Amino acid sequence: MDIRPIRSDADHAAALQEVERLWNAAPGTPEADKLDVLATLIEAYEARRFPLPPIDPIDFLKAHMEATGRTQSDLAALLGSKSRASEIMNRRRGFTIQMIRLLHAEWRLPAEALIASPHLVAAA
């Protein structure tokens, strides 16, 4: 198995091409092992080369709610307060630790995505 670190875009392109060739490898074969190792190397290279900017936690929540068909009323029911849900959705309040734990436990949201400080608007 000829596997080496991915250090350049050319190495990355070659690794992607090899993954494509190995895509349907039967589990337990040396080809499947090579595919697994290449996928790990590609993932590490892409994380370094193309880092994703942190997402605002309220934007993350809104995207999740839209994708899952949830509404502000659903958030209010979860948090136990219409006013808290409204304050969050209108960027007047961030999440408390308890809210983060609740969203993580009940809606299966990654806590890491909710921890950052959101962009809030000043009260009028």
Automatic annotation (TrEMBL):
The record ties this protein, via CDD domains, to: HTH_XRE
Q: List the InterPro entries.
A: Antitox_HigA, Cro/C1-type_HTH, Lambda_DNA-bd_dom_sf
Gene Ontology biological process: regulation of DNA-templated transcription
**Record-linked Gene3D superfamilies:** lambda repressor-like DNA-binding domains (1.10.260.40)
Cite a single GO MF annotation: core promoter sequence-specific DNA binding
What protein name does the entry list?
A: Transcriptional regulator
